[in-house]
Amino acid sequence: MLVHGGGVTREEGGFFTRLSDGLADAGVASLRFDLRGHGQSEGRQEDLTLSAILNDIRVVLAYLREATGASELFLLGASFTGGVCAYYAAKQPQEITRLVLFNPQLNYKRRTIDNRPFWVDDHLTDEAADQLTAQGYLLHSPTLKHGRAIYNEVFWLRPHEALGDVQAPTLIVHGTKDTFVPVNASRAAVPLFQAPCRLVEIEGAQHGFAVHEDPQYLNPQSQEWQAFVIRTTADWLAER
Q1: Among the listed residues 159, 5, 164, the one whose alpha carbon sits nearest the alpha carbon of residue 77
Q2: How many domains does the chain have?
C-alpha cells in the first residue's frame, strides 16, 4: 500500500507509477490512492487531518486483505505521510509485515509549527490567526493547505515517540540534501526502533530523490536516483 505525500497525488509526479511497476516486476502487488482533498478524491485539503489519514489506511488495508487474501501486507509512506504510516504500524503491529518510509516527516509539530515564522511560543501570530479565521487554512507549501484541526493535532500525535513500538522491519530511504525534511531526522530515528531498521541515504538527493527544483523529475540524475530507490525497495520487500 503506497501512501503519497501532501500536496501531490497518488502518482507522486510519476514516481509512484514507476515504483508500482518496479514492485510488480519483483512479484509485489501494490495499491495507491489519493488522500482526501487530493487528486481525484473528494473533500478539501484544509479539512484533512492526521487521524483521517490513519482511518483511510485502516480501511484500505482491510480492503486489501479481503480483495487479495494476502498473508503479508506492506505499508509505504512518503514525506508528509511517513509519520502517519509509522504511527499506524506502531499502533496496529499485527497488520503490517514490513514498513517503508521515504524521507519521512516523523515530528509533525517541529515541521508544522516550530519551524514556521507565524508561530511564536506555540501561538499563532495575530496576522496568521486572522488569516486562518478568514480563509480557513494556512499554506504549508505552495500545494498543501493546513486547516485549524491539523494545527491542534500536531501537539498530541507524535509518531517519533512511538517508533519503539513498531514491530515490522523498516526501510527508510532519505536524500542527504533534503531541505524539506533533513536527513538528520531519519538518522536520529533509526536507533529509536526496536525492530530491525535500515537507513539508505541517497547522496546528493533533494526531497523526492531529485535534483533541486525538478518537480516533474525530468532531470536524468533525478531519474537515476529514483530508479535506484525503486530497485532497493523492491529487492528489500521481496526478501524472504
Answers
A1: 5
A2: 1
Grid cell for residue 93: 503491529
pTM of the predicted model over 0.85: yes
Contact 6, 35 (CB under 8 A): yes
- Expressed as residue numbers, the domain containing 173 is 2-107+163-238
Q: Which three cell numbers stand for residue 199?
A: 537507513
As a whole number, mean pLDDT of residues 50-74 equals 96
pLDDT for the residue 112: 94
Kindly report the backbone phi and psi dihedral angles of residue 140, in degrees, each rounded to the nearest multiple of 5, phi listed first: -85, -35
Residues in Cβ contact with 55 at an 8 Å cutoff, skipping those fewer than 6 apart: none
Q: Tens digits of per-residue pLDDT, 103-143?
A: 999 999 999 999 999 999 999 999 999 999 999 999 999 99
Q: Residue 199: name the closest of 101, 111, 86, 110 by CA.
A: 101
User: For the domain that residue 214 is a member of, what is the CATH number?
Assistant: 3.40.50.1820
180: its cell numbers:
524539506
Strands (E), the chain: 2-3, 32-33, 74-78, 98-102, 119-120, 123-124, 138-141, 144-146, 170-175, 197-202
